[in-house]
TrEMBL record:
Protein known as: Purple acid phosphatase
A Gene Ontology molecular function term of the record: metal ion binding
Signal sequence bounds: 1-24
Record domain Purple acid phosphatase N-terminal: where: 99-209
Length: 626
């Protein structure tokens, strides 16, 4: 049952059949053909934009009053399973383990099943002898209506070879990782399957393909930053109980990089590198959910894993040398994206992608941890995907996923995506993106439809869902809160990067954000912005811009664009009801599965055509300068 039904009016465009170079001309041609106008989501109900809820940190959950305000105090209960715990151990005699299901592929009828066999090895690189995977033939025995078909696939391994002399005796060779693509499955049908190799078969699993007709209602599970703690298990089990048809996972899987190569059961310290066996444990823990429900994922910052290797993070296009060491190695080897049918571990094939869910939802998965500025490969691809790749009259829903959230009010990671949004937000607006899904911030926050830090009925709804249960715990303080441990100073005033606040960074020409984000930002990209007052309580914003009495870095209370925020673990569910309606609910782990802590109904109405045309004109002017 929804606790809240909220509001407003909106319309969007659908099929924008043009490339960047000829944006305006082809956009105008499309309008003449009647292809442009398309409705987008708006909140429905009498409380349009008037609903604003804040749940503050609960000391009983995180362990103490001080822990609610001091992020240096670890929240209680956020401990990864020990690698010897039965929850994360796996067989090493050749039996399959860590089974996962990926899909659908862009054609809507292809899926992939992946799993591991054997054990990992750790030691000096010259002692790590990989098995002959070319001679291996992993198989999936797929059964439907009593008829079984054997599908053959590919096996691979990867090595994490550290360049640091202190770590070179602790290089890592993965277990055998198996991928089998299942093409031309029947939509909306139940299949059972077993996986294995050389007569060593798994138990039987069951899944249902997504339908392509009569799809409604369609349940979509939402999660991110999941990890491998007891809290992760609660999220996993609640997600299973919610019975989604598909899961969208917005990055940060194993948190192996929270450990050093020498400290796999003691995080946040050590000589460097990452605890790659944590990836093995993660695959085991999440098998119950991911083996029976198809998953679509994006990469997060914890998938980069560049500690201890010679990795280059650059705002310019680069091709990583596969299969040598490179960022995203473990993730791309184990969880290739939908659409990949060979060369599975090659990160160059896995950086960003798009697929269609049940013929009705286009999901565009971007990567804010790879070169994204104008002129890059991702930029050209993303603009083409947003404006040219699908017909909104056929596929009415458009969801964009990338890991780091541009709109949230938590103290940690606040406003780290202004550069990224300066590149893409106008295109999101023009393309009529219905919803943007993010993780990274370990809390839940839902916005009203918005655009550039203001409510806008024609803008997207932004969902931060990075509350999956990981070892780092929930983020607890909002930027507009006062810090009782620091003489009631605002948390906004405590924000800093490079040892400086936003004004000082702006004056020094420094970028705002952690190095694993700013390394990908175009060199001249604006990363620090100030806004006028848009707070629920009114009044001047916090941390005013130098020489301004009206523009601030934060609001002094929950912003008007923020609908619901809660520093708790949980998961979300989208219930797509028709071409024009959906509901969004969020379930907190502490409440149990049957009670939603937040809910909203979203519907399509008209009213945004004028704003659409204005945006088209703006993009036309920009395209002429390119």
């Amino acid at each position: 049952m929804l606790k809240h039904i909220s509001s407003s009016n909106a319309i969007v465009l659908v099929l924008l059949s043009f490339s960047v170079a000829c944006l305006a001309k082809r956009g105008e041609e499309g309008a003449k053909r009647g292809e442009i106008v398309r409705k987008i989501i708006a909140e429905v109900g009498p409380s349009a934009f008037n609903y604003h809820n804040t749940t503050l940190c609960n000391p009983q959950i995180v362990g103490s009053y001080d822990a609610c305000f001091n992020s240096g105090i670890r929240a209680v209960g956020n401990v990864d399973y020990n690698l010897t715990d039965p929850m994360v151990t796996f067989p090493v005699g050749g039996e399959p383990w860590g089974v996962s299901l990926t899909g659908p592929y862009p054609d809507g009828v292809t899926y992939r099943i992946s799993w591991q066999t054997g054990n990992h090895s750790i030691g000096p690189l010259d002692t790590l002898v990989a098995p002959d995977t070319a001679s291996m033939t992993p198989v999936v025995i797929l059964t439907h209506n009593g008829k079984s078909i054997i599908h053959k696939g590919t096996a691979l391994t990867y090595k994490r070879a550290y360049t640091s002399a202190a770590l070179q005796s602790l290089d890592y060779l993965s277990p055998v990782i198996n991928h089998v693509v299942l093409p031309n499955l029947k939509p909306g049908k139940k299949y059972t399957y077993m996986v294995g190799m050389d007569s060593m078969l798994s138990k039987s699993y069951t899944f249902k393909t997504l339908p392509l007709i009569n799809i409604y209602p369609l349940r979509v599970g939402l999660t991110a930053d999941i990890g491998q703690t007891v809290n992760s298990t609660v999220t996993r089990d609640h997600l299973i109980a919610s019975k989604p048809h598909i899961i969208l996972n917005v990055g940060d899987f194993s948190y192996a990089d929270d450990y050093s190569v020498t400290t796999c059961d003691s995080p946040f310290g050590g000589p460097g590198g990452t605890c790659q066996p944590r990836w093995d444990a993660f695959a085991t823990l999440w098998e119950p959910a991911w083996s029976t429900t198809p998953v679509i994922s994006s990469a997060g910052n914890h998938e980069i894993e560049y500690s201890g290797i010679n990795a280059t993070l650059s705002p310019y296009d680069q091709v990583f040398s596969y299969p040598d060491n490179y960022p995203f190695l473990a993730w791309s080897s184990r969880y290739p994206v939908p659409g990949i049918v060979s060369d599975f571990g090659n990160i160059n094939n896995n950086l960003y992608y798009a697929t269609t869910v049940a013929g009705k939802i286009r999901v565009i998965v971007m990567n804010n941890y790879y070169a994204f500025g104008p002129g890059t490969m991702q930029y050209s691809w993303a603009i083409d995907e947003l404006l040219n790749k699908f017909d909104r009259s056929v596929t009415p829903w458009l969801i964009v996923m990338f890991h780091s959230p541009p709109y949230h009010t938590l103290f940690t990671h606040y406003k780290e995506m202004d550069c990224f949004m300066s590149v893409y937000e106008d295109y999101f607006y023009a393309a009529g993106v219905d919803m943007v899904l993010n993780g990274h911030v370990h809390a839940y926050e839902r916005t009203h439809p918005m655009y550039k830090y203001e409510e806008d009925t024609c803008g997207a709804v932004y969902i931060t869902i990075g509350d999956g249960g990981n070892i780092e715990g929930p983020y607890r303080a909002f930027v507009d809160q006062l810090d009782p441990l620091n003489n009631n100073a605002s948390f906004c005033s405590e924000l800093s990067y490079n040892g400086m606040g936003p004004n000082e960074n702006l004056a020094a020409g420094k970028m705002w954000g952690p190095s694993y984000q700013t390394a990908w930002n175009p060199p001249t990209c604006q990363t620090i912005t100030f806004q006028p007052s848009t707070s629920v309580n009114g009044g001047a914003p916090l941390v005013l811009m130098t020489n301004s009495s009206t523009l601030g870095f934060c609001q002094n209370s929950q912003p008007l664009w923020s609908a619901h925020r809660d520093p708790s673990f949980g998961h979300g569910i989208l219930e797509i009801l028709s071409d024009t309606e959906m509901t969004m609910t969020w379930n907190r782990n502490i409440d149990g599965i049957m009670s939603s802590a937040d809910g909203v109904k979203l519907s399509r109405v008209s009213g945004c055509d004028g704003k659409r045309k204005s945006m088209l004109k703006k993009l036309r002017r920009q395209s002429r300068k390119m």
